[in-house]
């Protein structure tokens, strides 16, 4: 049985957009959609009219029920025959959704929910889940109703290898092509570790050929498993984050590993993944590698 698609709901416009996307994701997978609202204090936003130490008197239950009814209505407008369940859990949203990720096929969140500071482009929930979630995490952001290929950010890391398989699966589900993008620059000497800053690579042609070969090797097993997916390979010499963000402008989904090669061991979410979560022009799905799970 397919595990459910879980979506965090807090009543914000961003979370309702996430509900619609999550409904379509569940429909593609033939899965149940699980609407989850984390009812935690002091994170909960209580309506006026009651004391903060007594949420029930403030009509919080009615507020939560109304939020979930609105979310379910939005989901059924997107996918009418969808199986939908609702869950109200006590606790902080970060922890509640992390626990939900253990039994989900996908967790979907908006780019910014209630309680986020206006200057933050991405709520803390999305960043935390991308680093700690036990299943892939989709953060809904960018332009509305994006189309184009599924964009794979390929870098040869363990998380990047997991992202390759997920990107092929997502392209197959959507009937879309896959654009596999590998970005390199002359500060990288090979596919394993970054070079010392003083060891600047001068043989750009050699490195370009190496990166092309490594990309093809990473894709080959999945091309055999998913022959229905059309694949475009693209190896470019550029700065990694700007190149991926620019490419996301023509994609319907960007798939990336949680932490790429050259990241600090103690960081569960790499700088490239964080940049994509903050600035990509389409939704971003982040997957952790086997060593990070």
Structure, described:
With 293 residues, this protein is of the alpha/beta class. Helices cover 37% and strands 19% of the residues. A ten-stranded mixed beta sheet has the order 3-2-1-4-5-10-9-6-7-8, with helices on both faces. Strand 4 (106-110), helix 4 and strand 5 (137-140) form a beta-alpha-beta unit. It is elongated and about 65 Å long. The model is unreliable at 49-58, 114-122, 188-199 and 262-268 (pLDDT under 50).
The number of strands is 10
| Beta-strand proportion | 15-25%
Average predicted confidence as pLDDT: 82
Helix content: 25-40%
Radius of gyration based on Cα positions:
20 Å
The biggest sheet, with number of strands, parallel, antiparallel or mixed sense and barrel status, is:
10 strands, mixed
- Backbone shape: elongated
Low-confidence stretches: 49-58, 114-122, 188-199, 262-268
Q: What is the number of helices? A: 8
Please state the oligomeric state of the protein chains shown. Answer: single chain
Strand order of the largest sheet: 3-2-1-4-5-10-9-6-7-8
The arrangement of helices and strands along the chain is EHEHEHEHEEHEHEHEHE
Rounded to the nearest angstrom, the distance between the terminal CA atoms is: 22 Å
What class, by secondary structure content?
alpha/beta
